């Protein structure tokens, strides 16, 4: 039986702002730029927006601060915050609100000046009581634990992690909006300064500015907009823990739940997907999510990415904009997975375009592998 929300909402506009660095601008100014670019993309005016879905690393009451800054008085506001995955989750919440008639034009938006405004040492998290006595480097030590466990349990190598970083860089070299576009080799990743064993500085995401915006309407309206609509076919969230010490199995994430449920809603399988956008805050993320979402078996992620398999020309296009490792990572990256997926399905990605892409996955990660949210997006041909 088809889920009632499958394809009920469609993305009709996307935009980026402040990528990758725009010194001297506030987080809200960067957000505003992304919003206005998304509105122009959709052929809409700001006053058409009556639903706002947002989150922030800087504004505790983002659901108030963002509409105020934009000059909106929305009918529906959602500022659910589960870290960087929040904006992928907002796709589901926006689809629900649109389906219920609570709003007609839903705006998902985020902005951050972390790279130029806050610096690399700023923490955006409350203290973790079970872990604080050991003085870990947050959040990298948490991901290093997962990487070390995966290596111990499945024989994954540092070279496999390096494959992920090199693949992301090769995609970034095809993306004029990416911050890091110089060549990168596996040997350079392995020789880079160690941050938290086994993760080197090149296994870690960038710290940049950036903002993104996504505009959705009900599917029956979508054909009336300038660009081809991208339909939300499935979306699901799963949360297992907050602190990494409370994750029952360091080598398996809640994506093992969110992925199957999102695919079930969409009525598709991982093998059907043409392009995959994953939240790669660290190289281990990509390997874990490829496994947990069903693109390869548990424990086979390291072998799956070898030999440029997820790089341009490989078996599966992953993080085609360069990801958080080489394109941008302004504190929270989830919305960028959605924007890149939409652009790929519209055929707007130039040199990095995946020919004939009709089905895409955008996957968000929040906290320390804590919140996992998977969205399946498709062209009109997939309805």
From TrEMBL:
It comes from the Bacteria. InterPro entries: Thiolase, Thiolase-like, Thiolase_C_2. Gene3D superfamilies: 3.40.47.10. This is Thiolase. The lineage of its organism: Bacteria, Pseudomonadati, Pseudomonadota, Gammaproteobacteria, Nevskiales. Residues 236-379 form the Thiolase C-terminal domain.
